[in-house]
Amino acid sequence: MRQALARVIDPEIRRPITELDMVPRVRAQGDRVDIDLRLTIVGCPAASAIERDVRAAASGVDGVGEVAVDVGVMDAATRDALIARLRGDRPTGHPFTADSLTRIIAVTSGKGGVGKSTLTANLAVALAGRGLRVGLIDADVFGFSIPGLLGIADAKPTQVGGLIMPPRAHGVAVISIGMFVDARTAVSWRGPMLHRTVQQFLTDVHFGDLDVLLLDMPPGTGDVAISAGQLLPHAEVLVVTTPQQAAADVAERSGLVARQTGQTVIGVVENMAGLAQPDGSVLELFGSGGGAETAARLEVPLLAQIPLSIALREGGDAGEPIVLRPGDAAGDAITRLAGELAARGRGLAGRKLGLSPR
Ligand SMILES: Nc1ncnc2c1ncn2[C@@H]1O[C@H](COP(=O)(O)OP(=O)(O)OP(=O)(O)O)[C@@H](O)[C@H]1O
Questions:
Q1: Domain MIP18 family-like: where (predicted)?
Q2: Which residues are annotated as a binding site?
């Protein structure tokens, strides 16, 4: 029976419920089994799903006829012990240190409106589509748009003790300041507060084991970029720009600030590149060359050119990332970029190599 129940996964914490001390007692009498199920918090949104899965798992065991589930909430001591275990042995600090196995990719741009958030959301979904465990932090605290782009504009994270469970969308675990403030509230915090937000997202959000953590950075070179640089000096950075030559200056600057904090700029993505017309010509609404120019100045490769695309924009507005529907030139370019990033693997930046002198 325990083995069967171990296959029931808490959808938010994403571990077997038996590992989470959620099943303190199981009694079998004849063909009847009584299961005590203890949820982490009162009003747990996943309660009915977990209870259903427990019933299904127990009913599947040979010889079981009747299943009775007593649903309650775990006591404070058990919950505190669980939270301590989930946090691991790090009372302070975040788990995404240089020698963690998670690859961190911060997506930045010199100015707003270049499609950085749209690209980040689609990239996250495309990476998750390749089977990677992906987390996404919307660090664009003033202009958060990730929840809407992923179709979870109204999602509110569950909090267990001081631990925040990130809502999931299209296979990606997502956290955004937009989940904690009213959508119409303007965020006007000063530096130290912003620093704490990024730090809290890194420390108190239970992402579990991740292959990739993406950060959608605010445009420009402000406090959040500097905080993120201090907290994640080993992060890799993608710089997004448009084809406009004038955009190259500010894009270059955002890459340089990242570099000053020790982060590694891995490449440039040019978004809003030429739009193919029905007659075969290409409409270069924003000119051309900005991506190549930025890449040359930062001495990194131009990793992708994402064309203007109505479907990409519509997918963002609808919360259905375009990468889920192959066939659009922009979506396909982002999917290719995800493939390339996954294939390149993580650089060795900041990582202990584990080599010892003989
Ligand atoms: N390749 C594209 N083709 C057409 N529209 C696009 C493309 N990329 C982004 N957009 C649209 O441009 C607008 C700005 O995009 P987005 O919000 O992603 O930019 P951003 O750089 O993250 O801006 P900010 O940092 O100011 O939030 C959105 O309406 C988005 O749908």
A1: 2-69
A2: 110-117
Q: Is residue 322 part of a domain?
A: yes
What's the total number of domains in the chain?
2
Q: Which residues have C-beta atoms less than 6 Å from ligand 1?
A: 109, 112-118, 140, 143, 145, 219, 271-272, 306, 308-309, 312-313, 316, 330
Beta strands in the chain (DSSP E): 25-29, 32-39, 66-73, 103-109, 134-138, 158-160, 163-165, 168-169, 172-176, 212-216, 236-241, 264-273, 275-276, 282-283, 302-307
Is the complex ipTM more than 0.90?
yes
Query: Ligand 1 atom 27: the closest Cα is on which residue?
Result: 143
User: If you measure from the C-alpha of residue 115 to the centroid of ligand 1, how many angstroms do you get, rounded to a whole number?
Assistant: 3
Q: What is the pLDDT of residues 85-136, one digit of tens each?
A: 888 756 557 888 888 889 999 999 988 889 999 999 999 999 999 999 999 9
CA–centroid distance, 308 to ligand 1, in Å, is 10
Q: What CATH number corresponds to the domain at position 20?
A: 3.30.300.130
What predicted TM-score, i.e. pTM, was given to this entire model? 0.84
- Residue 96 belongs to a domain: no
Q: Which residue ranges are tagged as binding site for ATP? A: 110-117
Q: Print the domain residue range for 113.
A: 103-344
